[in-house]
Sequence to fold (283 residues):
Amino acid sequence: MPDLAWINGEITPLAEARVSFLDHGYFYGYGVYEACKAFAGKIYALQEHMNRLDRSLRALRITPGRSREELEGGMEELARRSGYETAFVYMQITRGVGKRGPEQPAGAPVVAMFATELETMTPAAWNGGIAVITLPDERWAHPDIKSLNLLPNILAKEKALEQDAQEAVFYNAQNIVTEAASSNVFAVLADGRLVTPPLDGHILEGVSRLMILRRARESGIKIEETYFTRAELAQAAEIFITGTGAEIIPVTGLDGVRVGGGRAGEWTRRLYEDYLRAVRQSG
Ligand SMILES: Cc1ncc(COP(=O)(O)O)c(C=O)c1O
Fold:
């Protein structure tokens, strides 16, 4: 009897269970999960697991479109049919299947579960215990890695869209500007300096950022890789964001206040035109 999965109400062998590449859980980690244990087909602490699941779903504003009873029934059916005395029952609910991006996906949330055998330690192994190490808690403080750990980014984008903005610019605990949810940030500060935050492990090294800096250096345009604050950004004469998809986009509104008179600035335009030329020359 193979291990089984339950995907959107359909039971299949676990090894054959499939979800779409376009699942927002796959793109962004945009989903929640519960890992439960069942004994003789009954989930241990089921209500406690379901209460936590409800809280997680609410926090990410995912409505699974299936009743709690249906989800509980699915898990218990898998536990029962697994035939294991003690089963590991896993359930995850993702935001759904749709175009990559912050918009609500067209498809309904995807509910997926499986049951496998819960492998417990032998008494001898348990008596021997385990070894652990200590590490600084830096979950997940690695924006310099272009990883799929994008939940904070996509939630920030969603917040921007809700406020009639298209992108969110992050600042840290010291009010220093870092980067945006899916792009790097450049500014012409009030004193005329062209700046972008430095590569210090707290931003992604955007390829667009890299190419813009390289071209600027080659043509004698000074762009400083330096820190600047949110307050300095608010006073900037020009702001633009950069990214492979975005290319170079002028920022003309920041937290509801107009930037640069509401139009693309001179430096932004000049660097954009040069960027487009560079892309064309590469072909
Ligand atoms: C967080 C973040 N910063 C910056 C960028 C820009 O990188 P690139 O210019 O390589 O597209 C991206 C692109 O997706 C990003 O996700």
User: Anything to note?
Assistant: The chain has a mean pLDDT of 97.
